[in-house]
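User: I'm new to structure prediction. If I give you an amino acid sequence, what do you actually give back? Let's try with this one:
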Amino acid sequence: MEKKWRTKVDGKIVEHGAKGYRIGKVDSKKWKSYCARSLGIAKKYPSARKKTSPNYQSRRRWRCPISKNYG
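Assistant: Good question. You get back a string of structure tokens that encode the predicted 3D arrangement of the chain. For your 71 residues, that looks like this:
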């Protein structure tokens, strides 16, 4: 699957974001749904909490709160 963005983090290229999908406005239903879903991914998979993960980078783009307490 082709990704929408490429971000360089710690010398690595992280590809993330689905092409054709728009970022929702903060506090919209779409935004809340995405942030909740991606937080669930971060809780289930510890590797998704790293700055080099596509999930982490997408959460930054969506301006989701980056929680220190995933557990």
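You can read the tokens as a compact description of the fold. Here is one thing that stands out. The first helix runs from residue 29 to 44.
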